[in-house]
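Run log // design_07
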């Protein structure tokens, strides 16, 4: 894992920079989602479900080492699984303060994803971000 959340963003920016257009980025995001470990049936519960997403989305928040937050997630939509993978690379294993202080909207704009997603997908993405931020804030 990278040292900071901004280092993780820099790594993603390098990866996205070599992709020429949104179609290639879209396929790459889907490929990232294929690398996610699926959640168990038990973890796909109402308690873990993210509200405000058009697709089914579940996020599991657990305490990590040295007060960090560990995240796992899953969705029934391929592109959303990819967005979850990006969120996990940015947020999982970080301190609650780092998570709460990170500007996810600016990060997704830098990655060129915000304008490329439908309004419904963007709303779902930021519902996931708000859920992660809320779970982290509860650990401050």
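design_07 sequence
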């Amino acid at each position: 894992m990278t040292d900071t959340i901004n280092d993780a963003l820099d790594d993603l920016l390098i990866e996205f920079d070599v992709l020429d257009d949104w179609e290639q980025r879209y396929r790459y995001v889907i490929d990232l989602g294929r690398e996610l470990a699926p959640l168990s049936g038990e973890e796909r519960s109402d308690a873990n479900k993210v509200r405000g997403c058009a697709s089914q989305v579940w996020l599991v928040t657990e305490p990590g080492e040295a007060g960090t937050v560990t995240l796992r997630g899953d969705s029934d939509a391929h592109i959303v699984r990819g967005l979850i993978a990006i969120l996990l690379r940015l947020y999982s294993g970080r301190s609650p303060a780092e998570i709460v202080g990170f500007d996810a909207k600016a990060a997704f704009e830098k990655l060129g994803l915000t304008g490329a997603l439908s309004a419904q997908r963007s709303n779902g993405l930021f519902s996931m971000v708000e859920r992660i931020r809320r779970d982290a804030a509860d650990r401050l």
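The helical segments are 5-17, 22-34, 78-91, 96-101, 104-110, 119-137.
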